[in-house]
Amino acid sequence: MSPQEPLPDAAPERLAAVQTLAARLLQKSHIYGVYLTTMEFTSVRQGLVVAKLPLEDKHMNSRGGIHGAVSATIIDFVTGLGIASYDLREATGVSLEMNVSYLGTAHAGDTVEVESKVERVGGTIAVVTVTITKIEADGGRSPVTLGRHTKYVKQAKPKDIKDKE
């Protein structure tokens, strides 16, 4: 991920928690490092992370559309970031279930917007939904992928939240 200016809607501690986790995940996971280094945050609020990812040839399947495995990788990556934005956790648990619905496609040269929305974080389980949409030339959005990711978070303790939004 490239460095960027602070986002106007992100509390500094919340944005820092998300950026720190993203950097650590990109460094420690080869698959994230291959596919997601050009992702940029556009919004970070409690329980919501929005980012953009310009698509390249490496993101494509044999038919020239975004590969389903890339969409699943994006969902896996940003759900943890959503959980970190919710309560500033440094670790965001392990996957229990992931559901992915492929609704459309995007191609190399397109940019997709990725929204990770926390539906619930409890003492043991977190549920996060993700939408991936293609940004059209006119600024409109076309659905590409919907995902839901359930994670076991009991061992990943949240920090005290200092900013209330």
Automatic annotation (TrEMBL):
InterPro entries: ACOT13, HotDog_dom_sf, PAAI_dom, Thioestr_dom. Residues 64-134 form the Thioesterase domain. Keywords: Hydrolase. One of its GO terms (molecular function) is fatty acyl-CoA hydrolase activity. This is Thioesterase family protein. Coiled coil: none annotated. Belongs to the thioesterase PaaI family. Transmembrane segments: none annotated. It comes from the Eukaryota. PANTHER family: FAMILY PROTEIN, PUTATIVE (AFU_ORTHOLOGUE AFUA_4G04355)-RELATED (PTHR21660:SF11), THIOESTERASE SUPERFAMILY MEMBER-RELATED (PTHR21660). It holds the Pfam family 4HBT.
